[in-house]
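Data card: per-record layout.
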Amino acid sequence: MSANLYGDTPSSPTKDHIISVIVRDEPRVLTRITSMFARRGFNIKSLSVGTTENPGVSRMTIVVGGDDNILQQAIRQLEKLIDVIKVIDHREEKFVDRELVLVKVTITPETRVEVRHIAEDFRARIVDVGRYALMFEVTGDEGKITAFIEQMRPFGIIETMRTGRVALSRGSNADIPTQVYTDGGSKSLEPVLGDVEI
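The structure for this 198-residue chain is written out next.
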């Protein structure tokens, strides 16, 4: 049985996929990309956008929910967009991903010390101190962020804000800037711009 557009058939396990999209930093690029996902029924779990080392170029990290077929469809559709320079499928490479969360937790005189000790275990940083609440900043992979939130939940979470995941492939080609990659090379480490005009 083939998967439908949403990848929710029993034979098609749904999971999260991380892709990076290198785009021209132009007005309405984000709107065009999110509109494409919406039209196709792809589920964006998180989306983070920021500038890159190249002026006029931005990097998006998109977490897409669905099976492998959904991911391939999403990549093909992204590659058709005029403002997209390159799409990186992080399944093909080892990568580092991180997420940041701000968590505001209720405290009392009785729980203040325990909350701070748990935060220290997660290397969380206190960014705001109030009489009845502490705000923490935590950076790490998705598992660490989720575990920290669950540890704080019994004390009373007032608010949270997660940035969404960002990712870069491991390794570097910076020491060989003129390297020309062959079929055996790392696709994600190829020069991002090449001959593309910005």
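Known properties of this structure: The radius of gyration is 20 Å. The longest strand covers residues 95-106.

See the next section for split statistics.
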